[in-house]
Amino acid sequence: MKKIIFGGTFDPVHYGHLITARAVAEAVGAGRVILVPTGINPLKPPPAASDDQRLEMLSLATGGDALFEISDVELRRDGPHYTVDTVEQLIEQQGPAVELSVVIGVDTLADLPDWHRATDLLDMATIIVACRPPHALEEVRRGISALGEPLNARQVASLSESAVATPLIDISSTQIRRRVAAGLSIRYLTPQTVQAYISENKLYAEDTTAT
Ligand code: ATP
Known about the structure:
By secondary structure, this protein is of the alpha/beta class. It has one domain: HUPs (Rossmann fold, 3-Layer(aba) Sandwich). The chain has 9 helices and 5 strands. A 5-stranded parallel sheet has the order 3-2-1-4-5, with helices on both faces. The protein is globular, with a radius of gyration of 17 Å. The protein binds adenosine-5'-triphosphate.
């Protein structure tokens, strides 16, 4: 069975994540999406919601949809958290019958060559770059072809081949946190269950992570 790994801060999860994940799964014929909330990301401010709250929102957003599973592997491991370690751990956990690919949004593409053991990661699993506004597939492929060392030409070609056209959904967690802090509605940006959870738990009342 094919499964895709979709990692993120999910602070909070939103329709951009869910629609993109489903589109990639359909494009590559994967039966499952493993959502992996990330631990500490040295490149980003710490999440406003706790680990448990982010997990709970993922579960509320995807409850009852057999496409999604949620993994807390990264939250349970001591940092620093590197994708390559998470993928290694998931390959081990899922066993040889499962073929894993990893989805990354085009906004993280430029950082990929600097990731810890980037070339190992690329040899370990197919990396699928998904589109995100304002970048459609053509620009995604242009971005991939601009990647250099330590990736080799074969790895760059394979990234380009695996990139997938996904719907351009202009939603971000930052936008949701800012809207909540400003007292604006987040209806249609994230599932109703997540909206209710945010409001009941008074999350994001102050946008402390805004940059
Ligand atoms: P923030 O605004 O806090 O930076 P975010 O909305 O970018 O958050 P993350 O949880 O950091 O969400 O993203 C996890 C993954 O999902 C990343 O690979 C990111 O590129 C991708 N992603 C997030 N939002 C979208 C979207 N609207 N369309 C496509 N991919 C997305």
